[in-house]
Please model this.
Amino acid sequence: MSQATQVLEFGLGAESYCLDIAYIDEIVDAGELTRIPNSPPHVEGVMDLRGRTTSIIDPKTVFGIDDDGDRSRIIVFDPATTGDKGAIGWVVDEVYQVVQVTDDDIDDTTLADEESIHGIVKREDRFVVWVEPDVQTVEPEATA
Model:
């Protein structure tokens, strides 16, 4: 029997994505961001979350998604999962739900060269791209 993993499904543009909830600390409404001069294109800025300066990353820029979308929520990563990168969040269009996914639900055969993609989750009516937050997607100092 394959082991189940809980993932958070969210929207970027017209597509659905998900992350293992083990990476996630909290989900907050997108608020006012302070831009950082000369930052890489995927860094939207920083915001104060309960006294903690949090770098906000745009995963659409990282993944090459052109759709603008609502950008209404921020997925804040657990600082224990970002190493010495500090507090990091992704600005996303929408957060849908937490679901359990088993190995049988995942197709990873076409993604051998994609480090940031864990696999494609087959849902009843659609596909959901399971992304892995790696150094490029959470590191504010990275160059694009």
About this structure: Residues 59-63 form the longest helix (5 residues). The mean pLDDT is 84.
